[in-house]
Design brief:
Order of helices and strands: EHHEHEHEHEHEHHEHEH
CATH class: Alpha Beta
Helix content: 40-55%
Radius of gyration: 17 Å
Largest sheet: 8 strands, parallel
CATH architecture: Alpha-Beta Barrel
Oligomer: single chain
CATH superfamily: Divalent-metal-dependent TIM barrel enzymes
Number of helices: 10
Length: 273
């Protein structure tokens, strides 16, 4: 198992320029991570030169980028916007490749009012499958997440309900789309997070390790202090022979200490599971 972190606690600082990418990479190094993760929102300038400069900033700290999280909205009711979402996401994959990232986390899209289940599933499957097909050869693996609601969206994820997530996962299987299993979203929204994991375990490429204090909504807390059954999840992954990247979502708002504590907890729990 290798460990990275998406710094949810630092999102505003990084996006607003109060924390540099170099500083984030240094925090990751000091926390003993194997790599750091980016939100695509960390990359306002997507020119090759700007992306190369960010990569140098990370590598100068002795780190690398493992995952870039993105937020495509393939369930938008406007067909022209769905085509635009595909174009934008192709750009994201190019940015990730420029950063040297292994993975791009992708989403189905928002639960726009008036969009039926049938239409939303069809649009999501079409958009995600087309994205996989058009980015083959990029060196970047796309991973679809059981997702909730990012701050960048107006509505929650169309596939937040586990049954819809599984339907879209099944529909995208022929395209070879991987899965990024989010532990907190599974705990918050699935009746049985282990059953949800079992349903996709053969396609799990990466894991978003996050914790939630409550069920029914996502309330992020320091990893290991909430309801997420990490030992059971890790045991199930090990039983399946999985030994990939765990990408922590550290959203406890405890700063550097939160990253260090989360990394320690995940490493110890993985070893003991």
């Amino acid at each position: 198992m290798q460990l990275s972190c998406l710094p949810v606690s630092f999102f505003n600082d990084i996006i607003d320029g109060r924390m540099s990418i170099a500083q984030w990479a240094q925090i990751g190094k000091q926390a003993g991570l194997d790599a750091v993760d980016f939100s695509i929102l960390f990359v306002p300038n997507r020119s090759p030169a700007a992306v190369a400069a960010l990569r140098r900033d990370v590598e100068s700290a002795g780190m690398r980028v493992t995952m870039v999280t993105s937020y495509p909205d393939f369930t938008h009711p406007d067909a022209a916007q769905r085509r635009r979402e595909l174009e934008l996401e192709q750009e994201v994959v190019a940015v990730a490749a420029g950063l040297g990232a292994r993975y791009v986390r992708v989403t189905a899209g928002q639960a726009h009012p008036g969009t039926t289940r049938e239409a939303g599933v069809a649009w999501a499957v079409e958009g995600l499958s087309r994205l996989v097909e058009t980015t083959r050869g990029s060196g970047v693996t796309l991973v679809y997440e059981n997702h909730a609601k990012p701050g960048a969206w107006q509505y929650t994820d169309f596939s937040q309900p586990p049954d819809i997530f599984l339907e879209i996962a099944q529909g995208t299987a022929p395209a070879g789309l991987g899965i990024n299993f989010d532990t907190a979203n599974a705990t918050a929204f699935a009746e049985d997070p282990l059953a949800l994991l079992d349903a996709v375990i053969g396609r799990v490429v990466s894991v978003h390790a996050a914790d939630t204090a409550v069920r029914g909504q996502l309330q992020m807390v320091l990893l290991g202090t909430g309801l997420t059954p990490f030992p059971a999840i890790f045991r199930r992954l090990k039983q399946a022979g999985w030994d990939g990247w765990i990408c922590m979502e550290e959203g406890s708002m405890r700063g550097r200490e939160g990253v260090v504590a989360a990394a320690r907890y995940i490493r110890e729990t993985w070893l003991q599971s």
